[in-house]
Amino acid sequence: MKLRQYLIVIVSLVLAFALTACSTENETQKIRVTEVTRSIFYAPLYAGLEKGFFKEEGLDITLTTAWGGDKTMTALLTDGAHIALVGSETSIYVHAQGANDPVINFAQLTQTDGTFLVSREKIDDFSWEQLKGTTFLGQRKGGMPQMVGEFVLKKHGINPHQDMELIQNVDFANIPNAFASGTGDYVQLFEPQASIFEMEGKGHIIASFGVESGHVPYTTFMAKNSYMNENPEIIEKFTRAIYKAQMWIQTASAQEVAEAIQPYFEDTSLELIATVIDRYKSQGSFATDPILDVEEWNNLQDIMDEAGELPTRIDHATLVNTEIAEKVKAE
Description:
Layout: H1 2-25, E1 29-35, H2 43-50, H3 53-56, E2 59-65, H4 69-77, E3 83-86, H5 89-96, E4 103-110, E5 115-119, E6 135-137, H6 144-155, E7 165-167, H7 175-180, E8 186-190, H8 193-200, E9 204-208, H9 209-213, E10 219-224, H10 225-230, H11 232-251, H12 254-261, H13 270-282, H14 294-306, H15 316-319, H16 323-330
Parallel strand pairs: 1-2, 1-3, 6-7, 6-8
Antiparallel strand pairs: 3-10, 4-10, 5-8, 5-9
Helix pairs in contact: 2-11, 11-16, 12-13
């Protein structure tokens, strides 16, 4: 009798331990993510949230929008966020300032520039030479859109500071309004504003800076080195969820993607979201996997260097971790 009671106690303890371990293992981990802006360009992130890919990994994501690269990095560096979605150039700027805890790029989301060249007048047979002698409303100096814009212009033999009147002192949020009110013959715009102008007859999309500039780590997920070292499982789970979203985006129709992410763009019609998704998918803007490779990293630095904004050339292995993304992709 005593032996039986003893075994019951032992079995009860084992079951209790197993249930506790299972509960701990399945415990949801809360992660704070800050994005640089709210954009259809980041569709895989929103799709991952809406399709439940992060929940499948046991992650509870709180997403906030910083509205600016500097604010995004401030949030990350001061522990206001665990993970940031922002242009890779920001990690180079932080490193150049002598950060003791560098910011590491671990998962790429977009692999091209997301802006388009919009003309005020309809042009049936456009050539980049036509921009000479015109007024060009560009993006903020030092940001990736402006650097890519200048890189593409120079690629086509145009010196943006000599061959045209370049305007780049308008705040990001006010650029569309400035163009709509009559400033500039051409403007560099993100979606959906470019398509909105086209639908309203205020402008015409005539070229893609993303197509012209090639693959570049335009927007990536990054975290402080210390956070990655202390939370390797969280980073791996997060990367796996992103990869699931990237694979889903590739196979889903533009309409399906639009329906999935519409809660993040309540003031934008489903039709317009689908149009933008189709445009980005057709030019390969969404990365097909989270790996930020050496060629893309070097292309980024070439673009920064051409714009005179590269503080120092940094080796890929210094600020990029591909091991996690490669592991997730190989699973």
